[in-house]
Amino acid sequence: MRIIADTHCHTIASTHAYSTWMENIHAAKEAGLSYLAITDHGPTMPGSPGRWYFKNLKIIPRQVEGVFLLTGVECNVVDFDGTIDYVEDEHKNLDWVIASIHSSTLLTKEAPTVESCTNAWLQIAKDPRVCVIGHCGQPKFKFDYERVIPEFGRGGKLVEINNNSFHVRRDAVINCREIALLCKKHGVRVIVNTDSHFATQVGHAGLALKMLDDIGFPEELVVNSSVERFRQYLKERNIHLED
User: Fold this and answer.
1) DSSP the chain
2) Which end of the chain has fewer CB within 10 Å, C or N?
3) 68, 71, 60: which is closest to 28 by C-alpha?
4) Considering all CA atoms of the chain, what is the largest pairwise distance in Å, rounded to the nearest integer?
C-alpha cells in the first residue's frame, strides 16, 4: 500500500517547521503524490501564522508541478467541550480542517481525563467543519476509543494515522494501533499522513503503513491509498480541485 495524498504538512509559516510551500510541493512531486494539503497551525499555537496568512491562501493555485493543492489548517482543540480555534472569517474558505489536541494550546486548567477527552472528541465528531481527527493516540489525552471511533465514522471524519507519531510521540504508538484496530472493526475510514515539518518527510509514511499492514487493515478504508478513493472523499466534502 502507498499513499497518493499527504494532507497534514507544515511550512515555515508555523515557525517550528522549516520548509516553504514550494519545497513541500516539489517534495510531493518527487514522492509521486497527486495531492498535497498544507495545514499550518491555528492561532492558539505559539508561533502560528498571522490572520492574513489564512485569508490570503486564495491566491494559491489549484495545481503546481502536477500536484493538486488543498489549503488547510490544523486547528487546536482548546477545551474539553470540543471547541476548536477555527476563526470564521479567516478559515471559512479553506478546503481542509484537521482537529488536534496539543498540551500547549489547551486554554483550560482542567486536567485531561478519559471522560473529558471523550466528551471533546464526541463534540468534534459532530462538527461539520472538521475533516480529519489529528494524531489522537497520545496517552495524556486518552479517550473511550470504543465509544468514540464509531461516532467519527458516523460524522464523516477521517481518523489520522500519523507517521510522525512513530518518531516524536512514540508513547502513542500502542494507542495508534488500538485505534486502527477499532477503525477496522467498525469500518471507519482513516487517512495516513506524515505531519511533515521538513520537506524530506513529505509523502514518506512507511512506519504508519507498516503498522496498518501488520494488523491486516483493509486498504479500502484508507482514503488516500488511491486517487479514486480520495476523489470520492473530496466529492463528499464538496471540494472541487479539478474542475
Assistant:
1) ---SEE--B--GGGSS----HHHHHHHHHHTT-SEEEEEEEPTTSTTPPPHHHHHGGGGS-SEETTEEEEEEEEEEB-STT--B---HHHHTT-SEEEEE--GGG----SPP-HHHHHHHHHHHHT-TT--EE-STT-GGG---HHHHHHHHHHTTPEEEEETTHHHH-GGGHHHHHHHHHHHHHHT--EEEE--BSSGGGTT--HHHHHHHHHTT--GGGBGGGSHHHHHHHHHHTT--S--
2) C
3) 68
4) 47
Beta carbons within 8 Å of 206's beta carbon, 6+ residues apart = 163
Q: Which residues of the chain, if any, have pLDDT below 50?
A: none
pLDDT of residue 243: 63
CA R_g for the chain = 16
- The dihedral built from the CA positions of residue 74, 79, 82 and 86, taken in this order, carries a sign that is negative
Measured between alpha carbons, how far is 80 from 28 in angstroms, rounded to an integer?
A: 35
Residue type, 204: H
Distances (CA, A) of 109 to 113, 185, 204: 12, 35, 37
The grid coordinates of residue 174 equal 500502542
| Structural domains of the chain, with CATH | 5-236 (3.20.20.140)
